[in-house]
Fold this protein.
Amino acid sequence: DLKALCEELQATGARAAWAVADVADFDALSEAADKCRRLFGGFDTWINNAGVSIFGAIRETTLEDHRRLFETNYWGVVNGSLIAAEQLRKRYDGGAIINVGSTLSDAPVPVQGVYSASKHAVKGFTNALRMELMREQAPITLSLVKPSAVDSPYNRHARNLTGQAVQNPQPVYATHVVADTILYCASHPIREITVGGGGRLIASFYAALPGLAEPLLAKFAPVLMRDRRSAYEPYDDGLYDPTEDGLDEEVHYPMVRQFSALAEVRKHPGITAGVVAVLAGVGLATLLLNQRTGPTRLQSFRDRLDPRDWIDAQSLRGRFDDLIETARHGLEEAGDRAHDLTDDARHRSHRWFKDTRKSSRKALKKHGKTAR
């Protein structure tokens, strides 16, 4: 698999070489490092990623299997770190060592107890070696990458003592998410980084309330690790011998996350700090607007933004009412005036009629006397 992968990279113009070594064998791993130095003049990044696992109770695991797992998971990291530190110490600009641990180094779980113990050992060794390098002022950065569940054939490569099909509980993250984080650590000095919020959440819960977390993990972790969708099939595990599916690319879980927000936050603290500052400013403004005179300021601000208050509807309604009332009074006065004028005209015509008839009678009487 390594040879095929190197040939594929070389076909694209890349310089690549491969070497086979058991990480538990210090001398064999030293020879692989020497080959790299001869071919490329050395290296500036070393990644300790080899690991195996066992599913089963600790008391049901043989001491031989227990030791073999530690030979790979713990002593492989120790051997690789010491070899890399010796080589990088000779470089003027130093380099980076990246150890791949697990979130189970923060929160152990049953069924994977031996694996959890090995990752606890890796974390302790990595932190101690980092402090020693700091004390010696060596130009070497040492990062610990702690992935949560990853979409890989991890459960098939593990030795299964449960007699049931097993799996990693959700959420499960794509392998490239972890690979991108490792690559980032190669060029950025990060002390420790977790890939996957699910594992970080469980680890935080365990650290804060171990007395409550342990009974819950003891009861539910074995249930969550059981794969009820698949039937149990004995596989050739990779505890003692490597498997031959290193180049297989397939999805092993129905739901795989392609992004880890927690890792991105850790990789970009400046952007994270800016976002937090903005959110804190918004929260502080909201708090101030709701304290003491805050409600008045808040209501005043809302009133300014309310388009219904841009026009004083009540005042406008009052003006319309005044106009209607004025018009009504005007019409009533006009009616009264017309009625008065009508009465006056009637009285005048009646008086004129009376005066005319009276004068006519007088005239007739006068003419009659004259005629006689």
